[in-house]
Amino acid sequence: MKEAMWRVDKTGTFQFSDATNPNQTMLFENGPNYAQLKKILLKEFKGKSVNVADLENFIITQTPFRETHYKTHILREMEKANPPEVNITCSIQRRKGNFTPTCIVEFL
Predict the structure, then answer these.
(1) Rounded to an integer, what distance in angstroms lies between the CA atom of residue 16 and that of residue 67?
(2) Domain span holding position 17
């Protein structure tokens, strides 16, 4: 459902029209609230390690966010932070900013 909604309107202005209530609020914000997603992830995983596949499953099933919302805007930024906010380990060599499903993310 989320995938379909984001595909139709990439601005995130998903609105519901209700003729009986002209003050109906928006269903979603104008775009993903990355700060909110980061806060959710830190609340759930701070001090823990999780593989990328399980992290993505959590995001899809337990948050209103999509699987496309966390790698670039959350993990990549947390990895680049000074000091880093995550430690990424992978069984295969990887470039910074790339996260394969088997990589382990340690939330510091």
Answers:
(1) 24
(2) 1-31
Tokens describing residue 91: 């069984």
Verify that 61 and 40 share a domain, yes or no. Answer: yes
Question: Closest Cα partner for 50 from 86, 96, 94, 84?
Answer: 86
| Structure token digits, residue 96 | 């910074």
What's the pTM?
Answer: 0.70
Q: What is the pLDDT of residues 43-56, one digit of tens each?
A: 999 999 999 999 99
Strand bridging mode 86-89 / 49-51 = unpaired
Number of domains in the chain: 2
Spatial distance between the Cα atoms of 8 and 67, rounded to a whole number of angstroms? 16
- Here the contacts of 53-56 (C-beta below 8 Å, separation 24 or greater) are 53/101, 53/102, 55/105, 56/101
Which residues does residue 105 pair with via DSSP β-bridges, in sequence order?
50, 88
Asked if residue 15 and residue 55 are part of one domain, the reply reads no
